[in-house]
Amino acid sequence: MNNIKPKDMNDIKNNEAAIAAPEQASNDSSFDRKRHIFGAFFGPLCALLVYFTSIEGLTPESHKLLAIMTLVAIWWITEPVAIPITSLLGPTLCVVFGVVPMKTAFAAFANPMIFLFMGGFLIAKGMMVNGLDKRIAYGIMSMKWVGDSPRRIFLAIGLACMICSGWISNTATAAMMFPIALGLLEAIREMMAANGKVIDLKNYKYATGLMLMTAYACSIGGVLTPIGTPPNIIMLGFLNELAPEAPKVSFFNWMVWGFVAMVCYFVIAYIVLWRMFPADVKHIDGAREFIHRHVMELGKWTRAQKNTLLAFIVAVTLWVLPGILSIIYGSEAEIVKTYNKYFPEAIAAMVGGLLLFFLPVNAKEGKMTLDWKEGVAGIEWGTLLLFGGGLAMGGLMYTTGLSAWIGDAIKNMMGGEPSEILFVAVFCVTALLLSELTSHTAATNLIGPIAIGTALSMGFSPIPVAVGIALSSSLGFMMPVSTPPNAIVYASGYVPITKMIKSGVIIDFIGIILITIPVVLLLTKLIMGV
Questions:
Q1: Largest CA distance in the chain
Q2: Whole-model pTM above 0.70?
């Protein structure tokens, strides 16, 4: 069997143009256009209807807030304007209609959790700009155990996506791994052609499976850390804001159940996808050369990569150290309290992110590991605005009593005193369904305050349902619009929509029933004692 040269980098880079296609295709689709138009008219109409309807049990402020939240919720789901704009509109309307003063309405935009995310964005940008993310990904792909086995390559692609997306944007990870997966598929096509077998990658099972593994693993990896994906940090912010008396969930705490959930989700996805989309060859001739050539193109470790790795290690150490100290000395020990006073998680993130602006690459030229323009470009301002707006609206729902009113209504609908398992399950499934239809960040912002308020109203700890919502919202595997990684791989043309829906339904169902709810209820009780 002859060695085949896989598609060269110029051809692969041409495929990267497809990465932008999902957003464009989504915006131009008939369904989305109708959704936008429907929301543009239906949102204000429903808000006015709520505003002019007399509702018993609500104060004037909470009644007006309910009308505003109706508009915001519908626009978050239907997106007639960009989601971050809607997130700014909510607090603005609260000031205009006299719900709260401006200082109160916009205070959440300076929440420490926003700076935790900002520091994480800076570190992630440093990794991408300086090529550390690619070095990690190709390092996994080039391990000896991978070789040229389609099954092991399938696993290695998934592992690389999962590990990277635990620390950097799921979208960025998918965009990075997408051309790698395309190149490997082209190697298979050319190997088959050399042996007299012509295959159409658009109808090739293994191509569909590899693309789906790339997308799903990026979403799965995001559950590992609080900064892995926006829903995680959003729910932590809601816990701090709406349930200050609940035990604090630390970075270390999250990583414990995040790791368990991530591994379990990944095993399920791997088994399901490999059974549905197996390879019909035992070896991919040329795969070793393809990976080796790309590793060689990375060259030796650069100063910038070493500096970025140092900043990353500093941030991770500062994040997990209080958890380790708590295990050794106890959570109430003076050393733990002192550490948390001077190095809370947001400061740890900012220390790691800001280090990149001080670690020199070329001291004589004044070149640092990350410059200002790259840093600004690396911060996802829209996500931060969405996060701030969600915290603002969630906090106002709590202070005006609206969340308690909604919680009582839901409590009555569920029969008064439902079991905690049923309660958590209902909100987990709701979060999953919403995330399949709209942005998982918007879905989390919408359902998070309601779930926490309802939990407090029922006398449950808000931690299990908050964690459950965050984990469930990362299980949006059914539709291209569910997550950016799904949209990116769908643009390849190798993933029929029916295959994505079928595999997504299976993984969603197994994941939420066998993993999410047990992990949430058992681990939160074990770790947090709630």
A1: 78
A2: yes
